[in-house]
Model the fold of this input.
Amino acid sequence: MLSDAAAKGSIKGVAAIRGGTRINHLLFDDDCVIFSKASKEEWLTIHDLLLLYEVSSGQKLNRQKTAILFSSNTSEIIKREVAVVAGDVICGDYDLKVSSLIFEDLHCWNESLVGDMLSREEAALICSNALGKSMVGECSNKEVQKQIWEGVWRLNVPNPTKQFVWKSLKSILPTRQNLVQRKLIEDATCPICQRGEETICHVLWSCPTASDVWAESGSGLQKWPSEEKDFYVLWSEMQTRLQQSKLEEVSMILRGLWTRRNMMFFESKFDSPRKVLNVAMTSLQSFQEARAALNNLKGSHVQIRKNIKWKPPDEGVSKVNFDAAIDKNNFKLGLGIVARNHVGEVLFTFSSTKQFSGNSDLAEAAVLWRAMELVLELDVRLVVFEGDADRVIKGVTEVGGNYAWMEQQYANICGRLLLRPDWSVSFIHREGNCVAHALAKRALSMEGEWCWIEDEPSEITSIIARDLSCSNEGS
Ligand SMILES: [Zn+2]
Done:
């Protein structure tokens, strides 16, 4: 509510540094401090917001414990004006300025003081603001964030690695600490070292087993303090101080550390630092070589239409193609889903119809969601979901885009993806998505839901065979 009011300009908040990020409130364990300009108008706005909060939450503001404090340069007239409209709320003088939370000459936050006053996440958020600010000058927090996302997106690394860094930055990796927060487990202790909570920064940085990897990496990072901090802060330091190519290596290693941690859970083996580094470096190298080769070909005007033909997934992986078909006149949505293994054998086909009014993005997102549900029901592991809806695929895999009205759908899907490190989503051209397309079309002429396990409706067989012969030609 406060942020909304600030966005509309009806409350102004205060800036810690002239021209810097404006803050309108700080939340403590049980207390909330709201900052505003000393004026009758702003007080009335805040007063209305507090009333609205009381009415909608059913909680009551403790007026005995609520006080308005003025900074020392507020005029007596204004103090009186506010005191009159504030009624039973006590008015007094306010001495702790926000500026005491920062080291003014250093242009940075007094992190220990902020840390004492706020929860770890809040403190990290606040301190990362100023960190960005001190480094890029007059940048607002939003711009700093945008630069960070764009920096991640510019990395010349495989998409799953970018997605991984993004999830780490968003604090949404299923670490033990995150699972405890969601009340899914009770013990947040790092399962590898048994020392300290397993936060994102712990797994990727401060865990002694992670430090070992950084020590061997020769990335220069081994000299950085291995202390526990917010991963967002750590990454923004890396992004500021490391060259792009180093940052690419680092992001591969970060993902490698997470993969190793998961392997310990699922396969009970734990790779040596050398192995983690070797895998990270060789896969980065082969990715970048392949990409460079592709760019060269493009440069010589050879037309490459990549990702056009359907290709079987890697061994052990299942590929799930999905597509939607809409019948606008009858408000119907047809869902088509097909799962195949590394030799192109059908694991299942699925065709279903439901009532629907919405656009194609919403339809495609709905089918992807259904595909995920099916995969969960049938307990398929290591899945790549492949669809031809460019915007939807971007919406769930990329960051920084403006997908406001689809945000909730994408967030739901992302939420599922991050609980399943063995799933990914990728794009395929329409030509490579014929089977799912045919299943979706077919669905429009029927009712209900059909699932064929290791089989398909007869009219689809030839399309599946065509996919397979195309993919053989290509290899
Ligand atoms: Zn540990």
